[in-house]
Specification:
This protein has ten helices and twelve strands. It is an alpha/beta fold. It folds into two domains: 256 residues, Rossmann fold; 38 residues, no CATH class. Helix 1 crosses helix 2, helix 3 packs parallel to helix 4 and helix 3 packs across helix 7. It starts with a helix and ends with a helix. The structure holds zinc ion.
Length: 306
């Protein structure tokens, strides 16, 4: 009898053995990211690359998998220890730093879980994942934890949006992509985040879905993989008007599929960009635009309309 017997009964030996060898990168080890990392370890994922630059503070302990014993320690180390406490055989690489300085850490991994709050950082992670053909699972928690959303972005799927086209559609009017922190809360008069984060249990409801969808993606190629009803799920913790004129009740969820925006400058030429990165010719933005027949003014006008 091993610790994994019950998981093996659920998933089967083949899928569990497969998960033990899969590597997930978790960027941002706050309330959501820390929960996702530990949950994936408890579901059989065996290899982790954790990236975060913050120390756990005493204000964090009511909204984090780490507790008072971890105050003053880097969040990556606290979460790495929690993973090892669940699975001593797990291979964990803990990187204390900002993702912008550590994109190399994403080379060769199987999936990225995005646990950061800032939209600007999410756009940078999006670029890094597109360049590597890496699937990423993003989550956002709404103000005061009233709900949240989770999206799976798969650059290998031609119909899949990238995070930039997705956010342009879903966050329309809600988020300024240039702003640093805008997932929940508002920017106060002094220019800093006026955080009104949700309770741990409301954040974790969203993070639990993020973990489950990440696990499902990691199971691609096994008989345990489930086809989902869309690429995006929006969760209500309180009554939430997700679709105009219709209130989704507490604990309800709605699936939607956001299509790729053919005019998106981040992803519409990703394959060619990858080719360019791999070798010979550097393609200029102008060249890409003229090759595609998209004129810059048109792209801007479409942006303005949406
Ligand atoms: Zn895009």
């Amino acid at each position: 009898m091993t610790a994994w017997d019950r998981i093996e009964r659920l998933l089967g030996k083949e899928a569990l053995d497969y998960l033990h060898k899969r590597t997930v990168g978790v960027v941002g080890l706050g309330s959501g990211g820390g929960f996702v990392a530990e949950s994936l370890a408890m579901s059989g994922v065996g290899r982790f690359v954790l990236i975060d630059d913050e120390l756990l503070e005493s204000v964090n302990v009511v909204r984090h998998v780490g507790d008072l014993r971890d105050v003053g320690r880097p969040k990556v180390e606290a979460v790495a220890d929690l993973i090892r406490a669940r699975n001593p055989d797990a291979e964990v690489t803990a990187i204390r730093g900002r993702i912008e300085q550590h994109f190399d850490a994403l080379n060769g991994i199987d999936l990225v879980v995005v646990g950061v709050d800032g939209e600007r950082v999410k756009y940078l992670i999006n670029e890094a994942c597109l360049a590597r053909g890496l699937t990423a699972v993003y989550a956002g928690v709404y103000e005061r934890g009233e709900g949240g959303d989770v999206v799976v972005i798969n650059p290998r799927d031609e119909a899949s949006p990238c995070y930039a086209c997705w956010a342009d559609d879903v966050r329309e009017g809600l988020v300024d992509p240039g702003a640093d922190e805008l997932d929940y809360g508002m920017i106060g008069p002094d220019g800093t985040l006026e955080a009104e984060p949700g309770l741990w249990l409301h954040v974790v409801r969203v993070a639990s879905v993020q973990a489950d969808l990440a696990l499902n993606e990691l199971l691609q190629g096994t008989d345990q993989y489930r086809r989902m009803p869309g690429n995006t799920v929006i969760l209500a913790n309180r009554p939430l008007e997700i679709f105009q004129g219709r209130i989704t009740p507490p604990y309800g969820a709605e699936w939607i599929t956001i299509a790729r925006d053919p005019a998106c400058l981040e992803c519409s030429h990703r394959n060619r960009l990858q080719e360019a990165e791999a070798g010979e010719d550097e393609l200029s933005l102008d060249q890409l635009l003229s090759d595609s027949g998209i004129h810059y003014e048109e792209a801007e006008a479409q942006d303005g309309e949406s």
